[in-house]
Structures are given as structure tokens and as C-alpha cells.
Amino acid sequence: MSTPMFEIENLHVSIEDKEILKGVNLTVNKGEIHAIMGPNGSGKSTMAYVIAGHPSYEVTEGSIRYNGEDILEWEADERARKGVFLAFQYPTVIPGVSMANFLRMAVTNTRNARYEDTIAAGGHAEKLAPREFRKLMKEKMALLKMDDSFATRYLNEGFSGGEKKRAEILQMALLEPTMAVLDETDSGLDIDALKVVSEGVNALAGPEMGLLLITHYQRLLDYIKPHFVHIMMDGRIVKEGGPELAHELEAKGYETLRAEFPTAV
């Protein structure tokens, strides 16, 4: 059997001696879209932060493997360079740093690292020239229906909820990850912004990318169709299925699941 692109196995995570994740197992292959749903405090965002390499969380047991390599010893920037991406639920405001400069630095550093890895492995690659970056950024901004002036604004400063989420997806579009985690990208979006963001995600998703959507609501999954749905409660994935599972959850709520899995409270 081929090695899964991304695999979480028996993951236990604590913060300040409180256990949050209690044995999570999840496999995502190229071209697959997975949705993680669950009530507040179930561990969804903790899992996203641990995947990205947030230093405040302590992994006490288990592994996260990406293309067969355990990434837990990798720093957050190395994970990003290797193709792991996290779109934050609450993006950070950085006054004084324009979107264009931030994106140029992020993309240049990531592309240069991948260039060096490809050359070291005997492959062929070319570095991204400044003129090519500007052209690429404009193309991706147009995809997300973003005005050109957006690039000159300071990162997330004064942005609406929809603008912040579009900025996150713009980063994903430019960084071209092969494993992307979107942490409640739909939160704070009105229906028009949700459609625009979803259209952007759908345009970026493809056979080379694995996508993990973390959400509370079925409405996001009406626009970005998952192949698999996982329900997380009390730090564990308690139920898995296809897209129909999200509809079942929307109809019945979490109380039915709590009765079905009494240890997940």
C-alpha cells in the first residue's frame, strides 16, 4: 500500500497540564477534502495549531506524518516550507506591514526553500522573479474578487471578517501547499463573502492537495463539498462518514451524539 500523504496517529496533546486531544486518528490523501465538525471546546482548533507547529501545545503521545515523515520535530516555518498551511480562525493584525510585502516575503522564502530541496534532489526548478510574483498576486487577487488596493493595506488592519478570511485564502493561493487546514474559515462571513471564499478554495483544491476544513456548520459544506466528515467531541473523533453525516448532525444536533457516546462530554 502507498504511504498516506498526511496521517495523524493516536495524537494526545496538552496545554498547561490539561489534556485537550485524547487519541486523535486521521488520514488525508492527495485530492481529498475532509471536514471536522464538533462543539466548542472539542479540540478542533487545538488540532489545527498542533499541525501547524504552535509551540504552546505539548504532544505527549502519537505522531503526525507528512509524506511519511514525522513532522513533530519540525519548526513551524519548516512545515510551511514543506507545504503545510493553516488558515487561522482569528488572523493576526500586523500594522505597518503591507499585504504585498508580507506575501512577497512569505512566498519568496517558501519558494526558495522548495527550489533548494528540488535542486538537492537532482530535479529542475526556477526561483520566482519579482515581476512574476506581482503578476501571480494579481491573478490570485482577481480570483478572490479583491481590489488591487488591497495589496497596499496593512496586514488585516481594519479588515472586515470577510476581508481577513479572503486574505488567508490569498496566502494559500500563493504558497501552493499540498496540505491545507482551514480553521473555521466560514466564521464571521455573510453569505456573499462565504460564496466568494468558497469559490476561491474550490478553485485551489485539486488532485495534489489534501484539504482539512474545520467548521461548526453545514452551510460551508454546501459550497465546499467534502469527501469525508469527522465528528470530534472531547478531544476524540467519535464518528466518521460521508457528506450525509454533516446533514445528520445539522438535523439532530450534538445531544444525540452525546447520548450515543456518553464518554464524550
Characteristic terms for this protein:
about 260 residues, alpha/beta, Rossmann fold, 6-stranded mixed sheet, 4-stranded antiparallel sheet, 8 helices, about 40% helix, globular
Report on this model:
There is one protein chain. This protein has about 260 residues and is an alpha/beta fold. The protein has a single domain (about 5-260), classed as P-loop containing nucleotide triphosphate hydrolases (Rossmann fold), CATH 3.40.50.300. About 40% of the residues lie in helices and about 25% in strands. The chain contains 8 helices and 12 strands. A 6-stranded mixed sheet has the order 6-9-10-3-11-12, sandwiched between helices. The chain has a 4-stranded antiparallel sheet with strand order 2-1-4-5, covered by helices on one side. A two-stranded antiparallel ribbon has the order 7-8. β9, α6 and β10 form a beta-alpha-beta unit. α3 (about 100-120) crosses α4 (about 130-145). The longest helix has 22 residues, at about 100-120. It is globular, with a radius of gyration of 19 Å. It starts with 5 loop residues before the first strand and ends in a 5-residue tail after the last helix. The mean pLDDT is about 90.
